[in-house]
Specification:
Layout (H helix, E strand, L loop, with lengths): L46 H14 L7 E4 L1 H11 L10 E5 L6 H15 L2 H12 L2 H4 L1 H12 L20 H11 L9 H5 L3 E7 L6 H11 L2 E5 L6 H4 L1 H12 L3
Parallel strand pairs: 1-2, 2-3, 3-4
């Protein structure tokens, strides 16, 4: 299972995504530069760094063609690894891609503009104002930080009120910037046919109200000949917003544990 970011850690997928661990072995790791994989090495971390790390993790743990579940940037990382795989590199037999990150620079620009627009809507700014006036920071510093984090990601949700009881996480900004910069003026879609040609099956799950354009996932599904499940009344966080529908789709795709 590959977490989002880049520059984050796997913790925020928990406890919800541990639902998969009730029936199968789930392997998670913190990608280089974030969480418990933070580093003082000054060398830039690029998309290729993450791909090489993923190949090494799969080889070290003898995962071979084990299915990969990727979320957000983690879904894009799974596609980058599979699309650029060499003849001897391990490639999953199944890719389950949840809320994939935008697969081109143009779609990323659209996402950033939409996220900024939503962040300024009265539904979210009103909750921020209420938190600032609540006195929670003085009464309960930890509770204040928790709520401030939830409001910082509320624009990802179809209904920002649902941004509750989340596991906070930190994104290391220089890692995030370094990875996205290394992609340049990217468009991953044309490379996805290489994944299909190797026999990898794919599932894409995308919330109808995700600030990431649905068109990005639709193009990926067409290129991969993948099953596309569009969840209604759902933004970017289906494991919180629509867990039953998400896990039903994953169980059907992944098959017997």
């Amino acid at each position: 299972m590959l977490h989002g970011g880049p520059g984050a850690s796997h913790d925020y997928l928990l406890p919800q995504m541990l639902h998969l661990a009730t029936t199968r072995r789930v392997v998670l790791y913190d990608q280089r530069g974030g969480g418990r994989s933070r580093t003082d090495n000054a060398s830039p971390i690029t998309w290729r760094t993450h791909v090489d790390d993923l190949i090494a993790v799969r080889a070290e743990l003898s995962l071979d063609d084990a299915p990969t579940v990727g979320y957000s940037w983690g879904a894009m990382l799974a596609l980058l690894q599979a699309a650029h795989a060499g003849a001897g590199d391990p490639v999953p037999d199944k890719l389950a891609l949840m809320s994939p990150a935008p697969l081109s620079r143009a779609w990323r620009d659209s996402f950033e503009a939409e996220f900024a627009r939503r962040s300024g809507l009265p539904a979210i700014t009103g909750m921020r104002d209420a938190l600032a006036a609540s006195g929670l920071r003085e009464r309960d510093a930890d509770g204040y930080r928790q709520r401030a984090f939830e409001l910082s990601v509320a624009a990802y949700f179809a209904d920002p009120v649902r941004a509750r009881d989340l596991t906070p996480f930190r994104v290391v900004g220089k890692v995030q910037q370094s990875v996205w910069s290394s992609l340049g003026n990217f468009d991953l879609v044309p490379r996805l046919a290489a994944i299909r040609s190797r026999g990898t099956r794919a599932l894409i799950v995308h919330g109808r109200q995700d600030p990431i354009p649905l068109a990005s996932s639709e193009a990926a599904a067409a290129a991969l000949d993948a099953t596309l499940v569009v969840l209604e009344d759902c933004g970017h966080v289906p494991y919180v917003e629509r867990p039953d529908a998400l896990f039903a789709a994953l169980a059907d795709f992944l098959g017997a544990p």
